[in-house]
Amino acid sequence: MQQNNSVTEFILLGLTQDPMRQKVVFVIFFIFYVGTVVGNLLIIVTIKSSRTLESPMYFFLFYLSLADSCFSTSTAPRLIVDALSAKKIISYNECMTQVFSLHLFGCMEIFVLILMAVDRYVAICKPLRYPTIMSRQACTILIVLAWIGSFIHSIAQIILALRLPFCGPNLIDHYCCDLQPLLKLACMDTYVINTLLVSNSGAICSSSFVILMISYIVILHSLRNHSAEGRKKALSTCTSHIIVVVLFFGPCIFIYTRPPTTFPMDKMVAVFYTIGTPFLNPLIYTLRNVEVKNAMRKLWHLKITSENKK
């Protein structure tokens, strides 16, 4: 589908052109990426290994951590390697693959956050029907639908990207391939494609954020009828979710719900939601969640005990 293109590769300008700052970028984002992968894998292993974390909330947290790891992997390794490269070249096919993976796992994260909000709503507002509504079968179906929805979204994005003709220049003023920077290089009027982009990615980000905020307002309002202990536990869980939602959707809405204009802070905003938020999510969910911390301690204790017996 690469038609009317004289461009077979792109050059990413990255976050900075200064050699000293590039070394700083390498160190910082290498630490962020390793922390993201280790933190999310620790959550994944803990949830899979612990019998105390079998509720729907941790079932969805497992997939959020999986989406976080893959979402960060779609951009961070390229940014890290390019920080030490003299020429940051990415082929056309690699660029399109990055667009696809970025939107696939980013959209999956959005859908999982919505499912986690649904789970909290049912648990707090309809506690007697919770086991029936949020059964393991129902949760599995919801996750499958989330994957299907994410795949459809990313297919729509890659179709838009593949329809763009490139005839030079091939300098992308960004650290990764995405539709916004690619639109600036296209040899055509991109008004219609940008409108489709805003109505797709922008609408998903904005509508999902509104739905999530309304759901948490309803949840928090319903807590007035619960006991003090129940309110404290529910507030702790909901606060973690709200922090994650705001950190992820704020930058996402800023990037995808506006005309094709460029701002100096665009790259840093993109870095925050593609690399920063996946790094912060494990910290937020472990530091604020007693059950996860206890399960991690037990898992670590069992590992040490088994090694000592050997």
TrEMBL record:
The keyword Membrane applies. It holds the Pfam family 7tm_4. Residues 39-285 form the G-protein coupled receptors family 1 profile domain. Its main location: membrane. It is a multi-pass membrane protein. Belongs to the G-protein coupled receptor 1 family. This is Olfactory receptor. It comes from Panthera leo.
